[in-house]
Amino acid sequence: MKYSSLRLLVFPFLFFIFLIDSQLSTLFTTVSFSHFSISSHLLLLTGLYLIDLISLPSSLFIFIVLGLIYDQYYLNILGIATTIFPLLIFVIYYFYKSFERNWFVDLLVFLVLIFYFEFVSYLFARIFHLTNLSVFIFTFYNLLPSLIINSVMYCLGRPVFKCFFDITYKT
Known about the structure:
The radius of gyration is 16 Å and the shape is globular. The two termini are 21 Å apart. The protein contains six helices and no strands. Helix 3 runs antiparallel to helix 4 and helix 5 runs antiparallel to helix 6. Helices cover 73% and strands 0% of the residues. By secondary structure, it is mainly alpha-helical.
């Protein structure tokens, strides 16, 4: 973000993004006439850009709390998102230490994060007997549409994030 005083507003901002995220997911699923279960991952996209703003311990704590809220809001069971969100943030931090950022790398990292989040959530749901969907149905009716919609959201929202978070790619 361009203003350092906004660092204090990171958690309320992420919570607001979380609320928008759930509404977008509902909207996308409704627009698809409920044929697909499309998940918006605006929260992960925002987390991808926040790594330059806040420290690793702070972001891990914030995403643990958001994971607890996510688990209660969506799953009514604690543990799945609470485990996955901090791991994703940890991977983002250490991935960008090895690679130079550009828009294409950001897109690929975002898609990998979505795949990891969705697939590990699916695996946990299968292990805890929360779902009985086959991998085929999950992949074609949930994972693939979510990846496509989130790719479009990334491409359309990139100028806004670039302006808001003051991102400069050094090439």
